[in-house]
Structure formats: C-alpha cells, structure tokens
Write a structure and sequence with these properties.
heterodimer, A: alpha+beta, Beta Polymerase, domain 2, Cytochrome-c3 Hydrogenase, chain B, 15 strands, 39% helix, globular, B: mainly alpha, 11 helices, 68% helix
Chain lengths: 598, 317
C-alpha cells in the first residue's frame, strides 16, 4: 500500500474541465441559467428552461473545455417534485428532468436540470446528440409521463404496453395492497395477448426486402443464452442478422420505487439484488451516498473491509461471466471448474457475512459486524490456490483456437462508440481506453492500493473477456493487500446517524437512549440534500443518485446501472453477423437482467 | 438355431445388445462428463446411479405423447423413426467378431454411407414438420452439415477400400491381420473421425441442435418417446461411428489373448469415450466456419490422401 494521496474526490470532480464548462455556459447563457444549485457531491448543477436545454446540451456536446470533452451522457432521469418540501432556492417545478454528463478525458461531471409542469410535460429530445438518450428518454416517459419531442419511438420501455399510469409518479401506488385486487378475466387476457403480438412495423422493421422475405425470430424472454428474462426480436435474412431489437422489462421490480418506500437503512438489502452477481458491491455506492449526505466519515478499517469484500464479489461475478461466455460459444466444461473457486469465495463471504450471494452486509457508517476470528486463513488459501487455476483457464478458454475464431473481430466497437452508447467498465477498457473509477476517482480508500487497469485494443468479444480475466488477477492483488494491511479499529463510525446506531452510550443517558430508539424504530433522518455516488461495479459504472427531503426515507432513488446502457448497444454492434455471433456478443457484454430493469 | 452370421439368434442378440448399450451410454456419458467436469453426475438411482437409465425410460415412456397442433403430423411422427431405423440397419453390415454379424455384404461400406445419407432426412424432416423457427434453423444447418460431411466421409474411406480391394467390412477386418489401416491411412482416419462427429452431430459439431443458439434445434418441439428416439438415435449413431472406426482402421475384433468380441468392445468403447471427451473439451465453431473448414480443407486433404494411396498401390503392383 502507498501513502494515502492528498488529492480528494471532490478536487478531482471539479477539475478544470468542469469549472471551464460552467464558466463558458455562464458566458453564453447569462440569465438564461435559471439557477446554479449546490449539491453535496459538488457536481456543478445548472438549471435551464425547456427552451434553452437543447442549445446547452448541443454546446456541451460539441465544445471542448480546457481541451477536453464531455463524452458521455451518463444518465438521464426525472424527479417528481410535487410533494417535495425542502427545495429552497430551486426554480419552481413539478417534474424535473435531470441530465448527468460525464467527461472521461477531463474527469469531470456536469448536471443539467429542466423544470416542467404537470399540464405541459414535454421537452426536446437529446437522441440526436447521444444515441443512448433513446432508452433513457423512453424510461422517463414510461415512469413519469414526460414526452420528448422528436424522439423516434417514444413507447413504453420497462412497463408492459398495457400498463396504466406512470409508476414513479408520487400518486402511483407502490405496493399491491394499495391497489384493487388483481384479476385477469378472459376479455383482459385477450387484450394482453393482443398487446404481445409481434408486429415488425412497431419495432421499426420491414417484413421483406426487394429480393427476400425476412424471418423474425423471437429470442427470449426464455432462451438458454439470454441470461435471464430478456427478449431480442431478431430479423433474419437466412442466418444473417438484419436487425436485432432488444426488449427489456421482464425483470422489472420497481427498485427505485421501493427506495422511496423503505427507510434509508432497510433499502440496503434491495440494492444487493440490482446486480445480483455483485453482492455487497451494490451496497457500496448506496451507503457511500447516504454517508455523504449525513456527513459520516467511516473508519479506515471499514473502508478496507468494504474494498476486500467488493473485490471478492468482482471475482465471483467475473468467474461466472467467464464460464458462461465459454459455454455460450459451446464449451461446456469451464463453468464447472470456475464454480469451484466461486464456491471457495462464497464460503469465505459466508463466514464473514453470514450469507452468500446477497449478504446486504454494509451499513450506513460501517459494516454489520467485525471480521470473525481467523478470517484471513481461508483468504490466504484462496490467494495461493487461485492464480494457478486462472492460468489453466487461460490455456483452456482464451488460448483456444476455435474460441478465438468465434469471438475475435465479432461485435467490435471503438472508444467513441462506447462513449456514444454509455458503455463503461470492461466494455470501455476493451477498446483501449484506460479509465477505471477506482483509479480516476478513488473511493473507499482505493487510492491506497497498488493495482493495474487492464486494457485491450480491439473492443471485440474476445477483448472484453480478456480484460475481465486480467481484472480478476488485479482483484486478487488488491485482496492480498487488504489481508496484509488490515487496519485495526472500529467496524462502524460513531456518528449518530449510523444504522443500526452504536449502543455503548445509550444506556448511560436519556438523550442518547431516545435517539437510539428513534433511529432503530424509524430509521435515521438524513438532512435534505442531493448526491450522486458512482463506483466501478462489476459491470461498469454503477451510480446512485439520492435525494433526501429530510425524512426517514429517500425522496428519489435513481439507480444508474451499467447493464442498461450496454444492452441498448446490441443492435448497433450485431448487424450483419450470424445468430451464433449474436449469442457470443450477448455473452461478452456481461449483463444481468435485474441490473437492466431494476 | 445356429450361431452363425445371419441367424435369427444372432440378429436378435445384436439388436438387443446395441440398443441397451446405446441407452446405457446416457449414463456413461453423464458420469464421464461429471468426472471430467469436477462434479458427480447421476449417482442416486441404484448402485453408481446405474438405474438412472431405467428411471429415464420410465419417465419417457409414461410421458404424454404430444404432437403440436401446428405441426405436420405425418412428417413429425416419421422423423424420429427414420433415424432409429437407418442406424439400426447400418449395424447389419458391421462384423463384430468371427461368426457374429447379420450380413456380410459385398457392398457393406456403400450401404453404411447410403444409410447415413438417409439419416439426414430424419433431421431435416423433424425440423421442417415442427413448424417452429428454431427447428427450421436447426434443420437448415443440419441439411447443409450432413450433406457436406458425407462427401468427405465417403472419400476418406476409399483409401481403405482401395487397400483391401473390397467393400465388404468383414474382408476389411481380415485384411488388417498384418497391420491396422490406421498406419497407412492415418489421414483417412482423422478425416473419417471428424466427419463422423459431424454426421452424428455431437459437440463440437452439434450445430443443428446448438442449445445456446437455437434452443434444441430440429427437435425443439419433440417430447416424450419421440424425443427419446432422437436421443437414443444419437447414441446409436455414436456407437455406430465408433464401431466403424474400429472395423475400418483398428483391425476390428483382432487382438491377442482376449476373445474377439472383447477386443471389439474395448476398441469401440475407447472411441466412445473419446467422443465424450471431445464434448467436454472443445467449443463449437460457427456454422459457416464448419462449412468452409470442410470444403476448403478436408475435401482437398481427403482427395490428396486418395491420390497418394492410389499411387502407392499402383507402384507396389
């Protein structure tokens, strides 16, 4: 481990590029910037009216600031502001659309907001600037009923086409008990059946070309290789893909809506199930975001424990990816070998957390328990055991000639494509662009670890796999440093807003007892604020955008997941390939449907 | 009844042994794969899970015999029977041991190839009559694959036929008394092995039924006993290919000490195990890669092999 660097996260965020962008926008727009909002994540947040947002977005997309660009539309979402109490200073708004832009080269963020009113919910689309705005805008329409003028196909994305209402509006019920009992009579069944009927025209496909009639293949929602409930409508000319349109929403559970219902503390286990292969790594951006709003500093030991467990889950997730990737190109055995390591790691995780895949073990201000006695023994065994096995897998999978011919040059894209489509994580690094949240914006003490960021050159299926394989080796390095240098100290901060709060003093004086009682029964009250916290999750950038309205529950929980962005890219990279290639492409993306639909 | 080639007893015992052996392969394959993949495989029903096959059979026989309403009934029922029949018929010319066999035909090799060609109809018909897009894709792939690989299969055998001077499989075995044909015909053997895997469409060449791509390919719509026939048919094909390799390249029943039947069984089992190992080890090439590999690499190679064999025979005479 190195000496902690002095560069803090916030200094990174407001690196010259962000400030230059804000100054430039001020100069161009002047009074037309309605408001400059302060948020505790210190991302410059500018409010624009509907009339000027398009100009602002175009300017940011096309200009360079201090020599760098804002390459990616990281997230686009909305907030139903109608019952929000604490929004002093912000322009009047009933629904606010939020754009989160990110500069990779300049390592800076920018947030735009547009106020809208319920009787006039529309604003111009951003799809012609960033192609990945397409799904985000459809999702906003689906969840809030906000229209995007000029959007090519503004249909429901996540909810079924027959759904009534917009689920993330505050008046929409959050649980079945708030609704009429569910019935499905024959008439309704017919309506639902009719809605499911596949009409190529609605998907933007033609039935025939000049010289041949196309075949439409319905791949999913239940298909052996779509890794969950995921559907792709495939348009085939022989076995050649003319088009492949993904259809998502079969795994939607309304995690964001649940975030508004659960207390800050009781939402933690729900985050585990977003990227269900990432385990406690999902807790990390959430608890860090809450800690930031509450002003909690966690002890060093907590940071290292969190890093150690997150990296174990990264290995678990990558192993599953590696095995299924090989399996999807027809190699049956590797997945069974890889489950041996996965099992070892889960045994370690179980002995530390008490659960295997979804421990829900991080807490606001710390972790649930201290490490058990002798925790490092099994980890050291793993560190001895695993590298040799990884080498074996390389000779079995990555060096296999048939696998290379199946995956090299298939589904390739450039760094620029990756930016355009919001691709992060290994998918971005496989194009040769070295960018890892853990290095560029170290969180939870990653700046103290020595590790490399593996990259590849071609951005094809093979490279995406190779990058992840190397990442496992780097994760092992990080875990080794954790074991060798585990700091002593508390496993939870002594801040009063930690959950569950520490009990040492609660039996000593009445004030602490009352606080403890309220904090356990209702949950902590987080001061009103807004924060966005991103981490390098197993599959790319996972970000939680939380808004607290000074209550025991979140006012708005926005979960930006990497898989959502990655799936949207499938048509662009699979046209002209064969069905078998599509399977290899899907496998190489490494997504889980819960991470897409939430 | 007499124990000689073609007797009723001989026919009956070969039929029963071959079918039971093919059915038992389901268990063998699962155990072997389990062994190679660090897991157990079926080990609950009976000793070592040996009765797993019985349990499977009970299940398959008692399952509803369902024909999808949209399928073409005639073709749908016919398809699985074709594969069983042609493969069982192919066994009729296989010489298992001296005195054990059904027919010693002087067109044995041609008969086997003819039956293999007919086998392609089973897969094509099954896919087409199912009226299912995945099945259709599967049968398209199957038709292309089986028709192409038959070509190399046939040519790769001609070297052996030329060396023996006969199409009779029993003659071919007897001609190997001085040495197995695998030595002079090594290239022919390798091509036959590859074509054999492709003909029995097993991994890595299971492209017509590639689970990860097109679900179950041509037999997607099949269940119950009809699926069972495809399933056992695949194992029968495996036994057939292994038997043919034994006969054509590894001296058939010939070997020291042990009785001839035992030698035949041991040799054929080795190849069966090899085919199962292939499945555990190798990924699946893409459909077009398999085609170009066949036509651009295997075809010239097999022709070259035939040419050289011819030249050697001519110059020896």
């Amino acid at each position: 481990m190195r000496v902690p660097s002095t560069v803090s996260v916030t200094e990174n965020l407001n690196a010259p590029v962000g400030l230059a962008a804000v100054e430039h926008l001020r100069a161009v727009f002047g009074d037309r910037i309605l408001h400059e909002q302060l948020t505790c994540d210190e991302i410059p947040t500018l409010w624009f009216a509907r009339e000027s947002i398009q100009q602002a977005l175009t300017l940011v997309r096309e200009q360079t600031f201090a020599g760098q660009r804002f390459e990616m539309l990281l997230d686009l979402t909305a907030i139903d502001e109608r019952v929000r109490v604490n929004r002093a200073g912000q322009p009047a708004s009933e629904f606010t659309v939020v754009y989160h832009l990110m500069s990779f080269s300049g390592n800076a963020d920018l947030r735009f907001k547009v106020p809208l009113f319920d009787d006039d919910l529309h604003l111009p689309t951003a799809t012609f600037l960033w192609p990945n705005a397409n799904w985000y805008e459809r999702e906003v329409w689906d969840m809030f009923g906000i229209r995007f003028d000029g959007h090519p196909n503004l249909y429901r994305l996540v909810l079924p086409p027959t759904w009534e209402g917009h689920a993330l509006r505050k008046e929409h019920p959050a649980r079945a008990t708030e609704m009429e009992p569910f019935t499905l009579d024959d008439a309704q069944t017919d309506i639902e059946q009719e809605a499911l009927k596949f009409k190529p025209e609605e998907w933007g496909m033609k039935r025939a070309s000049e010289d041949s009639e196309f075949m439409f293949l319905n791949l999913g929602p239940n298909h052996p290789s779509v890794h969950g409930a995921f559907r792709i409508a495939v348009q085939l000319d022989g076995e050649i893909l003319v088009d492949a349109v993904p259809d998502i929403g079969y795994h939607h559970r309304g995690a964001e809506k649940m975030g508004e219902r659960q207390s800050w503390h009781t939402f933690i286990p729900y985050t585990d199930r977003i990227d269900y292969l990432g385990g406690v790594m999902n807790n990390l951006p959430y608890v860090m975001a809450v800690e930031k709003m509450a002003g909690i500093e966690v002890p060093e030991r907590v940071k290292v424990i969190r890093v150690m467990l997150s990296e174990m889950f990264r290995i678990c997730s990558h192993l599953l990816f590696y095995g299924t990737f090989a399996q999807d190109v027809g190699q049956l055995s590797p997945i069974f070998y890889m489950f041996v390591e996965r099992e070892r790691i889960f045994n370690i995780i179980e002995s530390i957390c008490g659960a295997r895949m979804h421990p829900g073990w991080f807490r606001i201000g710390g972790v649930a328990q201290d490490l058990p006695q002798g925790w490092e023994v099994r980890i050291r065994e793993l560190l001895d055991f695993m590298p040799a096995r990884l080498d074996e897998y390389d000779s079995m999978v990555l060096n296999n000639g048939i696998l290379k011919r199946r995956t090299q040059g298939v589904g390739a894209y450039t760094t620029q494509d990756a930016f355009d489509w919001g691709v992060t994580g290994a998918g971005l690094r496989a194009t040769g662009y070295e960018w890892d949240m853990r290095k560029q914006r170290p969180y939870s003490g990653y700046e103290n670890f020595e590790f490399d960021i593996p990259i590849a050159a071609n951005g094809d299926c093979y490279d995406r796999c190779a990058v992840r394989v190397e990442e496992m080796r780097q994760s092992l390095r990080i875990i080794k440093q954790c074991v060798d240098n585990m700091p002593s100290g508390d496993y939870k901060s002594s801040h009063p807003l930690t959950t569950p709060p520490r009990k040492e003093k609660s039996m000593q004086d009445i004030e602490t007892l009352i606080n403890h009682f309220l904090s356990v029964s209702w949950g902590p009250v987080i001061p009103p604020n807004e924060v966005s916290m991103s981490i390098e999750a197993t599959k790319g950038i996972n970000s939680y955008y939380l808004i607290s309205d000074g209550n025991t529950a979140s006012y708005r929980t926005r979960i930006r997941t990497p898989s959502f962005a990655h799936l949207q890219m499938i048509p662009a990279i699979s046209r002209g390939f064969m069905v078998s290639d599509l399977i290899a492409i899907i496998a190489s993306i490494d997504f889980v449907m819960a991470d897409v639909d939430r | 009844m007499q124990w000689e080639v073609g007797s009723a007893l001989n026919i009956a015992s070969i039929l029963v042994v071959v079918i039971v052996f093919a059915a038992m392969l389901i268990w063998v394959e699962r155990r072997l794969l389990g062994f190679w993949q660090d897991r157990l495989g079926p080990n609950r029903v009976g000793p070592f899970g040996l009765l797993q096959v019985v349990a499977d059979m009970i299940k398959i026989f008692t399952k509803e015999d369902w024909i999808p309403p949209f399928a073409d009934r005639f073709g749908f029922v016919l398809a699985p029977t074709i594969i069983m029949i042609v493969i069982l018929l192919s066994f009729s010319v296989v010489p298992f041991a001296p005195g054990v066999g059904i027919v010693d035909s002087n067109i044995g090799v041609l008969f086997v190839l003819a039956m293999a060609s007919l086998g392609a109809y089973s897969v094509m018909l099954g896919g087409l009559s199912s009226d299912n897009k995945y099945a259709l894709l599967g049968s398209l792939r199957a038709a292309a694959q089986m028709v192409s690989y038959e070509v190399f299969m046939g040519i790769s055998l001609l070297g052996v036929v030329a060396l023996t001077g006969s199409f009779d499989l029993r003659e071919i075995v007897l001609a190997q008394e001085g040495g197995w044909f695998v030595v002079p015909q090594f290239i022919g053997f390798v091509i036959f092995l590859i074509a054999g895997v492709a003909e029995s469409h097993r991994l890595p060449f299971d492209i017509p039924e590639a689970e990860q791509e097109i679900c179950a390919g041509y037999h997607t719509e099949y269940s119950g006993m009809k699926f069972g026939m495809f399933f056992v048919g695949e194992y029968l094909g495996l036994v057939l290919i292994s038997s043919l390799i034994t006969v054509l390249f590894f001296g058939g029943w010939q070997g020291p000490l042990l009785p001839p039947l035992a030698w035949f069984f041991i040799k054929a089992s080795c190849f069966i195990a090899f085919f199962i190992l292939l499945r555990a080890a190798i990924p699946r090439p893409r459909y077009d890669q398999l085609m170009s590999y066949g036509w651009l690499f295997l075809l010239p190679l097999s022709l070259l092999n035939l040419l050289i064999t011819g030249v050697v025979i001519l110059s020896a005479n």
